[in-house]
């Protein structure tokens, strides 16, 4: 089980980047939404919003749909979910690179008109989906694969991947 937990280092790196660099990046962007000024430090709430809205959609619609295709009781295996989450976190970091290039180029072209802070929402949205797949997959994997005498310990390993970042 520890190699599975160790594989989540990828998502931990992405999470650390989103908590630090993206907020710092946001401070150099246009923080206005109409007449309201949005603090850059509030943008990390986007993955949480996606988690809260997508988990019910995932459980109610995606799992039954994919279950019909795969004939697997869970739709996909727990490790496939973790894998999808890790791939999506890499995609999220690719988007980070593209947005940073766009931000930098706009800053060089016209420093008085920075791009909007909400360009960062793309990377946060993809990361929210990645986090959903990874967390759900890890929770189910640790709970289902752990011996009955160690279920509590193993199900508590899942949040450890969040603490390490």
Q: How many strands appear in the DSSP assignment?
A: 2
Q: State the helical fraction.
A: 55-70%
Radius of gyration computed on alpha carbons? 18 Å
The major pleated sheet works out as: 2 strands, antiparallel
**Secondary-structure class:** mainly alpha
% residues in beta strands = under 5%
Please indicate the count of domains. Answer: 1
Which stretches of 5+ consecutive residues score pLDDT under 50? none
Our measurement of the CA-to-CA distance between the termini, rounded to an integer number of angstroms, reads 19 Å
Mean pLDDT, to the nearest integer, reads 83
Tally of alpha and pi helices? 8
Strand order of the largest sheet: 1-2
Shape: elongated
Topology order in helix (H) and strand (E) letters: HHHEEHHHHH
What features would you describe in this structure?
The chain has 165 residues and is an all-alpha fold. It has one domain. Helices cover 70% and strands 2% of the residues. It is built from eight helices and two strands; from the N terminus they run αααββααααα. Strands 1-2 form a two-stranded antiparallel ribbon. A hairpin with a 2-residue loop joins strand 1 and strand 2. The longest helix is centred in the middle third of the chain and has 32 residues, at 78-109. The radius of gyration is 18 Å and the shape is elongated. The model has no long low-confidence stretch (mean pLDDT 83). Belongs to the major facilitator superfamily. Proton-dependent oligopeptide transporter (POT/PTR) (TC 2.A.17) family. It comes from Medicago truncatula. Keywords: Membrane, Transmembrane, Transmembrane helix.
């Amino acid at each position: 089980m520890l190699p599975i937990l160790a594989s989540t280092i990828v998502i931990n790196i992405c999470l650390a980047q989103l908590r630090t660099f993206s907020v710092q990046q946001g401070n150099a962007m246009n923080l206005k939404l109409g007449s309201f000024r949005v603090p850059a430090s509030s943008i990390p709430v986007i993955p949480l919003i996606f988690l809260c809205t997508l988990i019910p959609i995932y459980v109610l619609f995606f799992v039954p749909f994919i279950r019909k295709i795969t004939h697997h009781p869970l739709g996909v295996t727990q490790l496939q979910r973790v894998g999808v989450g890790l791939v999506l976190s890499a995609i999220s970091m690719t988007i980070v690179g593209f947005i940073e290039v766009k931000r930098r180029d706009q800053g060089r072209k016209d420093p008085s008109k920075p791009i909007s802070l909400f360009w960062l929402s793309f990377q946060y949205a993809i990361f929210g989906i990645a986090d959903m797949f990874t967390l759900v997959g890890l929770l189910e994997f640790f709970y289902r694969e752990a011996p009955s005498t160690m279920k509590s310990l193993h199900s508590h390993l899942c949040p450890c991947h969040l603490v390490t970042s």
